C-alpha cells in the first residue's frame, strides 16, 4: 500500500507497551460466527455526472485541441483505450475550419475523457458489490476545470492531474508499461480502474483492508503505522467494498445476533437446552419469529475483545474473534462478511490511544474490567474495505493475488464495451417572457380627474 515506516510502528508499539500485560490466551472455540453481511443489490444503472449550467460552448484553439488529441493517442499508458474517445473525429474537427464543430467535438471529448480519468470508465454493472462513495465529482467539477485549462493552455496537464495520487497507482502504471501478456495488462488495468473508483485523496488518517490480500493496515500521515492479518467473508457471504466512517472503538462488545445466525442453530439450542445457551453467554427475549438474542461480553463472545464502530447498511465492521487459529491460514476467507482482525488488543489500543485520546492505562483498565466500553474518536476517519488483486510487491514491481470472489472478469469484459457515459450539460430553460399588453392611451383634461 503506502510505504512502511519502522520508526513510526516502533513508536506506536512503545506507546502501547503496557498492553502486553493484558495478553489473553488464544481460545480454541471453533465455528465462531459473527454478524452476517447484509447483501445489497449491485448498482447497475450508470450515474453519469450531470452539469447544470447557463453556458455556451467554450472556444477551443487548434493548439488546445491538438493537445487533447495527443493525450488521447497516449492514453493507453493510463490504462484506458484511445478508441473510446474517437480520435479520428477530433482530428477531423481540428482540420475542418469549422469553429462550432471543433468546440462541440473537443468539449464532448474532454468531458468524456475527464469523467473516465476522475471516476473510472467501468460501468456500474461491472463493479460487483462496489459501494464506495467517491466525492471527486464534488471536489473537481469538470466545466470549471475545462475553463481553467483552456485559459491556461494546460489541457494535457489538467487531464493528468485527475489521476489517483496514491503511490500504488504509480506502481501499477509502471507495471502496465512493462506487461508482456494481454492477460497481465488487463489485470493491471482492472486495478488501476479500482483506484479511480475511490476518492482521489484517501485522507490524513484511515484504515484500509484489502480483501484479496487478507490484510488490514492503519495509515496516518501517509505512513503505515500498523499491519494486521485479516479474515474476510467466504464466497457465499462475500465482503462488499465500501468506505464508511469509523467513529469509535468498542472494547468488550456485546453481540446482537442477526436472524440468519439465530436460525442456523442458537435458536434451536435456546428452545431445547436453554441452560447450554446461557453457559455460552446468550441472553434472549421473545420466542419463535420474535426471538431476539444477545451474547454478553466475554472471552467466548464471537466479536472477541473489540469491535470498530463503522455504521453502514451492509453491517460490515472490523472485530476480534476467539478463533485465533484462522489467522494462521494462508487463504483466510472464513467469515460471514465482516473482517476479523489479528492482534485485536494492539489494534484497539492503537485506536483508543492515537485516535480517541486515551492513555494506555485507561485502555488497559477498560479491557480488564470486562465491561463494554466505547472510546469515541476525536475526528472520525474512513475505513476503506477495498479489492485489489494486483498490488506492489515491495521490490518495485507487482504481484498478482487470487481473485477471491471473481470480480476481475466482469471488469475485463467491460473493456470491449462502451464505458461510462460522459458528463451531460443541462442548460437551464430560460424563463418564459410574458408579452406586453398594449392598451389605448387615455389623455385626461386637467381639472377633470384631480390628477396633475
TrEMBL record:
GO terms for molecular function: carboxypeptidase activity; transferase activity. Pathway: Cell wall biogenesis; peptidoglycan biosynthesis. Residues 205-363 form the L,D-TPase catalytic domain. Keywords: Cell shape, Cell wall biogenesis/degradation, Peptidoglycan synthesis, Signal, Transferase. One of its GO terms (biological process) is peptidoglycan biosynthetic process. The active site is at 319 (proton donor/acceptor), 338 (nucleophile). Pfam families: Scaffold (PF20142), YkuD (PF03734). Belongs to the YkuD family. Residues 1-28 form the signal peptide. It comes from Sphingopyxis bauzanensis. The keyword Acetylation does not apply. InterPro entries: LD-transpeptidase_YkuD-like, LD_TPept_cat_dom, LD_TPept_scaffold_dom, Transpep_catalytic_dom. This is L,D-transpeptidase.
